[in-house]
Structures are given as structure tokens and as C-alpha cells.
Amino acid sequence: MGRLRLIGKAISIGRVTEKYPFAPIEVPEGFRGKPVINPDECIGCSACANACPPQALQVYDDLKRGIRVIHFFLGRCIFCARCQDVCPTDAIRLTKEFELATLSEEDLHQVVELQMVRCKECGRPFDTFRHVIYLAKELPPEQRTMMFLCPECRAKKASKIISFAKGGGKIV
Amino acid sequence: MILDILRKNDAEVIRHDERLIITSVPNEKLEEVAKELFSANCYYATGVGVDERGMSQGFAIYHIFNSENEGKYIVIKTFARNLTIPSITPVIEGANWAEREAMDMIGIKFDGHPEPERLILPDDWPEGLHPLRKDFPYNKRPPSIKPKSRVKKKDPNTIEVPVGPYHPALHEPESFELYIKGEEIVEAKYKGFHVHRGMEKLAESRMTINQIPFLAERICGICGFTHSCAYCQAVEDAAKIDVPERALYIRTLLLEIERIHSHLLWFGVVFHLLGFESGFMHTWRIREDFMNLAEILTGNRKTYGMNLIGGVRRAIDESKKRKVMRIVEGSKRDTVEIFDNVMGMRELLNRMENVGVLPKKEARGIGVVGPTARGSGIDTDVRIDHPYAAYGELEFKVPVYKTGDVLSRVLVRYEEVLESFWIIEQVLDQLPQGDIINENYKIPEFAIGLGATEAPRGEDVHFLITERENKVYRWHPRAPTYNNLPALPIMLVGEKLADAPVIIGSIDPCFSCTDHVSIIDAERGKILWKGPLNEGVRTWGG
Q1: B291 and B400 assigned to the same domain
Q2: Average pLDDT for residues B184-188, to the nearest whole number?
Q3: Hey, are the CB atoms on A16 and B305 less than 8 Å from each other?
Q4: How many percent of chain B have pLDDT more than 70?
């Protein structure tokens, strides 16, 4: 008896399978698909690389060329959207794209290269231009004089200034 | 009651509050304490071996007991003396695997253990190397040794039927040895841990505290969210973080959506194993609505990625709330209709009634959890015994059946699905306003935390010790199947071989969750794959 009723149920529901992949399929708003970095907005702060659980996002400095590389490898991505959460400039966004199969591994990489600033004292590249300018907005004007110094030189200079003040204006 | 037992046996109480007791028990009193706790109706949840050389002295094991009556977890810590701790397996059967795991991974010896054999490490792993010790680098790959050949006694009257590690009737690589006489199973042996993924080591050595929820979620492909919840609760417990109420309700909602989809999936599998394909199609059709619902709420069908320490990442607005309401209403009607039909099919019921019986006494000894325990007359449910998320404020029933056969496990799950519909309705009705995450916290060093959730398959326990710089010192997740699998031989013996698939299926086994890295054919000692794990899995794991 039960079995006959199930047949009736199946007929009343009709077909439930989708025509995909022969017809496109919709994903809802807020779907976590392929992440894409907008190279114009990225400031190279590495917040995304710190947050990324599978280390799909890596940031490293090419000191010879004075360039910071933001390297995203889709093959490791778990689509958690933590990078989108922590990005201060909304440069990385998760798109609705989910058809990611490809014949060439190159399609799985996105590389963003940003010009770095060289330290005024020692000449070593230490941060990207964009990040320095982004941080400068937050700094009080009197501290902006040191913004083009690398952290080590900045520390040296700061301690000099302090000892200068302590020594009553004389260099000790 | 429990405190009396502990005090009587010279235990030092380190922490005592309304949900957790942490104590340190001297070596020689351990067996006595375990025995008395067990007779005081505390069952064995899990045991965690820890290499404590980085935080205090030597090696220790933490035995974790669950007291449903007092609504507390009891953590008993014992230090190893000369790397040796008395075994409690002779008094509590359930501690067998946990002690052997600590033996493999940390290298603690258990005095008086009835079968001190390897459990987790593969047969070709060199002796004396223990991967969860702190001085073992996470990326070290030791050379393999030639496994000892196992000589088997052969009984001319029985036939051995090996099922697995790779077998069309199994969905995951696991191996059963069934010994049969004619049609009847006379002995059953289980050999697991073919898909150990080294997650604990990965988390301890490479990840930070807010990245691990995403790793925890990937322990299981079906009930991942409950793992990430349990992990977050463990950290929140260790660091005393207050979670906003709205976040707790959202967690509850997603946990119940996950339970419904998991149970519906399981019904489909069992119907399929019984040869009832149309039932399989119908339950999976209903389940699809819940997958879409999860996609709307979280941005993905399965890996929700909603949990962070201190709360959740996405709020639920009014329009989403209405969508959930609509889907739940329709699915409830559909589910009841299909099951009313199924329960009228005599030929189906006959294959489940009095098949694979697990008596209550054995079930308690092993410490089975979840629907497997509730089908054997044990009234246990973490949601009631140790309320977490928003369950303390909601009203729902816990179905318990006494017969202990496959049918009772089916009925328990069916009623649970109906209760889950009811819980979702309550959550949406009472959903509070406010923040969804509290990010204002500090993680203390070497604090112990415990998180437990009721996963669709049963109690899920995460034990955690924090470390400075947002790292974890030790994280041990214990999935419910870990406690349920040792019950399978009891269910299988005396049954017909043809019933074996549905009996194995009836505990809703989740092998990969239980195993947490080489791939080996244990029978012939032949190495099937050597090299990067991911490629090995692609070639052999499927």
C-alpha cells in the first residue's frame, strides 16, 4: 500500500534534478566563491595572509627589485572569506564564481606586485608606498617625519631624540 | 558525590565549577577512582595523552568522564612515572582505544592493558617514534620499516570474509574481518585509522587559534559545524569568553539544520542498504532544501565557516528568517508523509527488527553515544545534560528506545528530526537582537578548556590547552564514532552476513572523523602509496 502512495507522491512532485551543467545555475547573494584581489585597491598590508587558515595567501618581499609580492593560490583556498573580513581596503572579495576546473595550473594563481619604499637612512626597502600612505593618514603630523624610515632606523632615531632630550639638549 | 570520590582518593581539585571538574590524581589511585566513577554512573568520554615537557614536567594523560546526573565533565590528570601509567581498561572497557592512542602518539606505556597493540600508527611506522611529541617536527617523514607479518590461526569450520579497506559496500576506507560459519557471523574484527590526517599536529604546530575553527570544521564532511562549535566552546571555556546571546541562537539554528540534513542523509543510506531506492531518493530530495538553506544563511552548502572564537560571522535578517520558516514548514510535512509510508512497509521493518541488538549493559561499558546509545535505552544527550549554545532556554524531548536493534536507532533519529524542526521554530521565534561576536578577549597561557556538543552521531568532545601568542599547545577532538565503533562486533556476532551492511550503517559511522599518514594494505603488508598524502588520497582514497 505504502509503496503505491509513494509513486503518487513522486508523480506529483515531478523532476527535481537540475539541468546543470547544460543550463546555468544560480547561487544566492553572499555565496563564497573564488576570491579575487583588486590590484588597484590592495595596499600590501598582509592582514589577509595572517588570517588565511590554509596559507593560500602568501606575502613576501623581493628586496632586490624593491617589490612586495602578494601571491594567491586558489588550489589551497578553502573559501572561508576570512581575507575579505580582515582586508582594510576591501581589496579582496569573494565572487560568485564556482566553476574553477582548469587545464592549466597557471589559472589558479593571482599575483599582485606592489612598489616598496626604500628607507631614507639605510636604503633598504621596508614597506609598500600604499601602506605607508595609508598609515600616514592615521599618524599625528609630528610623527610623519619618520614615516619613510624602516622600523630599525626609526627605533634608532627615536632613541637618539629621547637621549637628546634627556641630556638637556646636548648629544650624549 | 563525585567530589567525595575524588577527595577520598587524594585527588587535588584544580578547577571546579558548574560544568567542569579538573583534578589531578596520584598514579596508584587512578584505577580506584576510575572504578568508583564508573559505578557512580559516569561514562568514559575520552582520554588525551599530552607531552607536557613544555609546560611542566614529563608526560600526562587526561581521562575525561561524563556525569549526566550532575551535568559535569570530570577531567582526571595523571602524570606518567618512567613513562608508565596504570591502565584503566581492565575496569572500563571504553578506555581501550584512548589508551592505545596515547601509547602510539605520545609513547606512554599503560601498565596492565589487555591488548597493548598498535591502533593508529600504520604497520610500517618505525618503533619508538611518537608523532605527537613536541620534539617531533610536523613535516618529518620517517623511513618505513618492514611490517611484522601476522600469523593467523585458521579454524577449518569458519570462513573469513575481509570487508575493506576498500570495498564497494563501504563509503570510506576501513577494514572489517568477518568470520562466518555458513550464513552466520561468529566473530568480527575491526581495523581502522586508514585515513588519519594528522590534524592535531597541524593545528599545534602551524595554525593560530582563530584559524583552527576552519580546520575543525573539516574533520567531518557531514557534521563539520558541530566540530567547529565544540572547538570554539573549548577556547571560550579556557579563556572565559562571554559569547553574545544572538550568536548562541544562530549557532543553535545551524546545528539543528546540520542535524536534519545529516539524519536525512543517513535515512537515505540505510534505505539504500536495504534495497529501498525510492525511499533513498525521497529523503535526499527533502534534504536538498536544507542544503540550499545553509547556502542562503552561510554562503556555502556544507562548510558553513560561521564560527570564530567569541561568536559567529554572519547575522540572520528578517527576509532570511522568513525563508527558513517556509522551508521548514514544507519539509516537515514531506518528512512525516514519507515516514508514515515507510513505517507501513512490513518487508522493510522485518529487516530492521531484532537485527544488530546492542544490550544496554554492554553499551554503557563501551560508552556509546548519541542515537546508538538512545536506541539501547540510555537517556543521554549533551544538549540536555550539559546545555551549550542556546539549548538551555529551549524546550525539546529526547527520544529513547529500549530494544537496541536497528529499528530503534531508526526511530530515535526520526523523532529527533521532528524535534529539530520544533527547535528551529523556537529559535527563530526567540532570536534576540544585539552583537554577534565578542572580539575583546585575551588568551591565557596553558589554560585547559573543554567543549562538548551533541553531533548528529552523538557526543563530540574537544579538549584543549592554550599557549601564548594565540597558539594551542594541545588540541584533541574526539568524534562520536570513536566511541560507537567498538560496539559493532557485539552487534554483528550471531547475525546473518547479509545483514552486516545495514548493521554497520546503523551506527551512522563516520570513519574519517574517527581517524584524524601513509596508506597501507594491512593484509599483505604491501605499501600502496608512498609520497605526498594528497596525491595518495587522490590515487587510493577516492
Answers
A1: yes
A2: 85
A3: no
A4: 92
Per-residue pLDDT at A142:
77
What is the extent of the structural domain holding B87? 2-111
In chain B, residues with a C-beta closer than 8 Å to the C-beta of A6 are 278-279, 282, 338, 341
Q: How far apart are CA B313 and CA B437, in angstroms?
A: 7
Residue where a domain stops, chosen among B95, B111, B127: B111
Flag if A2 and B338 touch (Cβ within 8 Å).
no
Instruction: Name chain B contacts of A3, Cβ cutoff 8 Å.
Output: 278, 341, 345
B210 and B99 housed in the same domain: no
Identify whether residues B219 and B104 lie together within a single domain.
no
Quote the minimal CA–CA distance from A136 to chain B in Å. 26
For residue B158, what pLDDT is reported?
78
- Kindly determine whether residue A78 and residue B299, on different chains, have CB atoms separated by under 8 Å: no
**Same domain assignment for residues B375 and B228:** yes
Residue B384 neighbours by CB under 8 Å, 6+ apart: B391, B398
Q: Is B41 left (phi over 0), alpha (psi -120 to 50) or beta?
A: left
pLDDT digits (tens, 9 = 90+) for B93-125: 889 999 999 999 999 999 999 988 888 888 888
Determine how β-strand A67-73 pairs with β-strand A57-62. Answer: antiparallel
Please give the average per-residue pLDDT across B427-435, as a whole number. Answer: 94
- Domains along the sequence of chain A with CATH: 27-166 (3.30.70.20)
Reduce the secondary structure of A69-133 to three states and give it as a string: EEEEEHHHCCCCCHHHHHCCCCCEEECCCCCCCCCCHHHHEEEEEEEEEECCCCCCEEEEHHHHH
pLDDT in the model for residue A170: 64
**Same structural domain for residues B253 and B377?**
yes
Does A11 contact chain B (CB < 8 Å)? Answer: no
ipTM of the complex: 0.88
Write down the pTM of the prediction: 0.90
DSSP letter string, B137-204: -TT--PPP-PPPPPP----TT-EEEEE-SS-TT-SSS-EEEEEEETTEEEEEEEE--TT---HHHHHH
Tell me whether residues B295 and A28 touch, CB distance under 8 A. yes
Judged by CB atoms closer than 8 Å, whether chains meet at A9 and B300 is answered as no
CATH number at residue B62: 3.30.460.80
Residues of B in contact with A10 (CB under 8 A): 278, 281-282
Closest Cα of chain B to A57: distance in Å? 13
Cross-chain Cβ contact A31/B288 below 8 Å: no
* B342 inside domain: yes
Is the CB of residue A108 less than 8 Å away from at least one CB of chain B?
no
Comparing alpha-carbon positions, the chain A residue that sits nearest to B314 is: A30
Give the pLDDT band (50/70/90) at residue B535.
very low
Q: Is the pLDDT reported for residue B532 higher than 70?
A: no
Task: Residue B428: give its domain's CATH number.
Answer: 1.10.645.10
Mutation choice for A interface testing from B231, B232, B300, B307 by most A CBs within 10 A = B300
Say if B162 falls within a structural domain: no
Chain B CB within 8 Å of residue A85 CB: yes
pLDDT recorded at residue B525: 38
Please tell me whether residues B105 and B213 are part of one structural domain: no
- B34-85 pLDDT, tens digit per residue, is 999 999 988 899 999 999 988 877 899 999 999 988 899 999 999 998 999 9
Please provide residue B141's backbone torsions phi and psi, each rounded to the nearest 5 degrees: -120, 100
Domain membership of residue B144 (yes or no) is no
Lowest-confidence range among A145-149, B210-214, B454-458? Answer: A145-149
What pLDDT shows up at residue B530?
Answer: 42
Rounded CA-CA distance B362/B155 in Å is 27
Residue B62 is assigned to a structural domain of this protein: yes
The total number of structural domains that make up chain B: 2
d(CA B468, CA B326): 47
Do residue B295 and residue A2 have CB atoms under 8 angstroms apart? no
